[in-house]
Amino acid sequence: MLVVVALTLLWAFLLVLALALLRSAGMAERNAERRLQEARPRDRAPEQRRRRKAVTTAVMVAALPFAGASVGVDDADAHSCRGARSAPGGTAPTATVCLINAERRARGLAPLVANARLGRAARRHAADMVARAYFSHFSPSGDSFADRLRRVGYARGCAWAGGETLAWGSGSQATPASRVRGWMNSPPHRAILLSAAYREVGIGIRRGSPTNAGAGATYVGEFGRRRC
Questions:
Q1: Positive or negative CA dihedral for 201, 202, 207, 212?
Q2: Which of 26, 36, 45, 84 is most buried when burial is the number of CB atoms within 10 A of its CB?
Q3: What pLDDT, on a 0 to 100 scale, did the predictor assign at position 85?
Q4: Closest by CA position to 96, among listed 26, 166, 2, 157
């Protein structure tokens, strides 16, 4: 009888011990799996996709209407930029960029690179202002500077910063030299032209002005930088 009781107690002890070992092993396995998950690099693809879709916008805008007083540009800059003092023609956008970069270099800033999309947005806005007789960063239909850059694909799918400058003038006030000097003499415009935040530029020039489609010239400068 004592032998039976002893064997029963022994089997009970072994059963409890076995269950305890199984439980301990299960906990150890779960802990190991958790540590493995914590150590494994997270899949950052969804986060990267969200960041690519995010658009960070810093916009500076300034408009310079016709000014009656004559404004000049340094002779050295005017002579080094072909067409700077001429009536706006085919070389006027290039001359305008040349003059802006001369101002930037003189202050130790990196020159701006011409960007085709910014140039397209600038030309369209200049033409629209002359055609619909308004002078503003907002079109009569409500389109903004940011809308224009999105439409040409510049401000789409990337983080970006941008600035826009407007001007118009007649006669001697319609030359690239006159308009760049006018921008430089205006603190809001000067801040855009000399901003270290921008790396690209597009210049649009349309013959005619918001007040007279048959005279003068209208200038639009689109400045930007993208990080994709």
A1: negative
A2: 84
A3: 93
A4: 166
Spatial separation of the C-alpha atoms in residues 135 and 217, rounded to whole Å: 12
**Pairing between β-strand 217-227 and β-strand 200-207 as defined by DSSP bridges:** antiparallel
92 phi and psi angles, rounded to 5 deg:
-60, -45
pLDDT of residue 62: 57
Instruction: Name the pTM for this structure.
Output: 0.70
Q: How far is CA 191 from CA 12, 163, 196, in A?
A: 87, 10, 9
Residue 37 confidence (pLDDT): 42
Q: For residue 173, how far is the Cα from the chain centroid?
A: 30
Q: For residues 87 and 179, give the distance between their C-alpha atoms in angstroms, rounded to a whole number.
A: 11
Quick one: angle between helices 92-105 and 176-184, nearest 10?
40
The reported pLDDT for the residue numbered 60 is: 59
Can you list the residues of the chain whose pLDDT is less than 50?
A: 2-58, 66-73, 76
DSSP sequence for 48-104: HHHHHH-----EEEEEE---SS-----HHHHHHSTTTTSPS-TTHHHHHHHHHHHHH
Amino acid 185 reads N
Amino acid at residue number 127: A
Alpha carbon distance 188, 195 (integer Å): 11
Angle at the Cα of 91 from the Cα atoms of 216 and 185, rounded to 5 degrees: 60
